[in-house]
Amino acid sequence: MNASVIIPAFIPRPLTKDRLNPSRTTVSGLEAFAVNNQTDLCEKRHQTCGEDAKRFLEVSADKSSDNVPPSDQKQIHPDDGVKWHMLINQMPLHFSNLNDPHASVFQISIIVLYIIMAQKEKLQCLKDFHKDTLKPSPGKSPGTRPEDEAEGKAPQREKWASKLDFVLSVAGGFVGLGNVWRFPYLCYKNGGGAFLIPYTIFLFGGGLPVFFLEVALGQYTSEGGITCWAKLCPIFTGIGYASVVIVSLLNIYYIVILAWGLYYLFQCFQPELPWAKCKQPWNTEHCVEDTVRKNKTLWLAANITNFTSPVTEFWEHNVLSISSGIEDIGPLKWDLALCLLAVWVICFFCIWKGVKSTGKVVYITATFPFVMLIVLLIRGVTLPGASEGIKFYLYPNLTRLQDPEVWIDAGTQIFFSYAICLGAMTSLGSYNKYKYNCYRDCLLLGGLNSGTSFVSGFAIFSVLGFMAQEQGVDIADVAESGPGLAFIAYPKAVSMMPMPTLWAILFFIMLLLLGLDSQFVEVEGQITSIVDLYPALLRKGYRREIFIAVMCFMSYLLGLAMVTKGGMYVFQLFDYYAASGVCLLWVAFFECIAVAWVYGVDNFYDAVEDMIGYRPNPWMKWSWTIITPVLCMGCFVFSLVKYKPLTYNKVYEYPDWAIGVGWCLALSSMICIPMVMVIKILQSEGSLIERIKAVAAPAKSGVSSRPKEYNVKGELTLPLDPNGNNGLIKPTHTIVETTM
User: Fold this and answer.
1) Domain coverage including residue 465
2) pTM of the shown model
3) Which residues are annotated as a binding site for Na(+)?
């Protein structure tokens, strides 16, 4: 053949980088011909078909080049890396050309050649070639293709529709209730502005590095929270199982908060907020309104020593109907049970179609809370007494830094707020395209997360300062954390504002959306991890949707124990032990050991460079290798040393059996790592050292999900030699198998 191949102009331009994934929504005439005549196709692949077609094309091109006018010719050099297979696929061929008297010999030859190839090849060859352009079957799970279903294969892994889908999903996943009700309280409790020192150290030494590690690992392997570790370092597969156990327990109790918030939201649609006055059926003789407490004469005349506020009685006697202890679990509260069912149904429909549905829902659930937070912030700082509350929030007390508990609180808050060690960030990252710059966006998202926590403190403490001034008490007397802030302190504050119903509705809508996107992102992480473990079983047809429904229903049934009269005690038991800082620190420590010391930090850095095109700041490498493991283990040890048994309201002490149940919840996740490690070693062969080396090495099937069309620099390569293309073209195939 000559140095260049003369191709008539009716053949489209060569396949370039921007055309590897055409968004074609129709099926060509040839494809329809192949599908309609699939029963007539040969049962065997002809290994020589590709070479015959290639030679036929070369001869036809040489013979027909002289018959084509120069204006209709296009020169393409073979070194351009354009495969003859792809050129054929891109031709706008129609069978009507056979009857066209003006059709060239070359055109007719190519049409005949294409029909012969379709007849000689199995239908699967053509479908493999078009696997990125054929539509999914109607009614099937995203990624389900007819050829996968026919051969019993797992469908292709779906990807985010856009970069913004991933960014908003991650933002919604880790910007949650902890940013609003936990960080401001910890900041005030642990020295105000001084608390930002240990917080920043743990942020850059632990939170951001582990967050980026999990996202990058998911993107590199295109696997969920369990199978990513099985690929990277099989001996540490227990990390994935531990994360799934933690997030499964977290999903059971975290959503109960949303059920409480939904119940409060329903109660807001009344002429008067039900927690504003002491005239409700659930109020006791000890209920005293704030107007009475503020009026010194009425307060002294009442001579009340043991009093409660109407908002506290609404929370304890109406919402919770709290019993005397965990021993008295009591009957089910059907109003809360229905609210819990409602939020589970919403959660299910947010994720039931995978990232395609999740990526659209987060446009509302992840953005609207920020709008509400800004509105509440503006309203809060304009209230009288707001400046005192903000001063109380940020005034530094450097002596508090001598207390190890301050550092423990900083470390656990970082790991809580970044939703790491739960498998969720790994799962979200696994849906990224291979060349996505996750490093840049992880840094931006980290700034967004911590910035939201800091700004939330202004919104919360400005309102608490107003409430303290209205009641004539110190701010320390009204500052609350956790459910106490969301369902007692803040509702009480908004009841004192003008238009209290409006502000209460806005607050609880913000609370619901903050918790909802965190909840369904965590459920998505749980589902993805398990589905990736059994892809052939759970990715077919509607099985993924059915599996999600089963998991949501099971979690709902287990969560019913927390909407009984003693449910608050069960909720606190789960919150204190099941997803505690001890469990998260334990998992984070082994994540860093597995990546930095077993797989190799330089190897992982090479993988990141292959994805994003450059090497991240060395601070990440040093964090994974030394800083993060030291911080995690130090905080883990101090947490055990400073351990205090769980109490409710600092009054009720849990019985020993309940404490034992709590530790069982904590150990159920922590034990996964050493247990799976032992199982992997026992399942391998050879001496102990040989077994450890075997299970510490990456999986033989490979770790990277890098498309084979990319070289190390990320450039597209389409070599003509079928034996020298990293397996892109198999010698037994005559149709190119693209894996973009």
Assistant:
1) 163-275+288-314+330-642+659-676
2) 0.75
3) 172, 175, 179, 417, 449, 514, 517-518
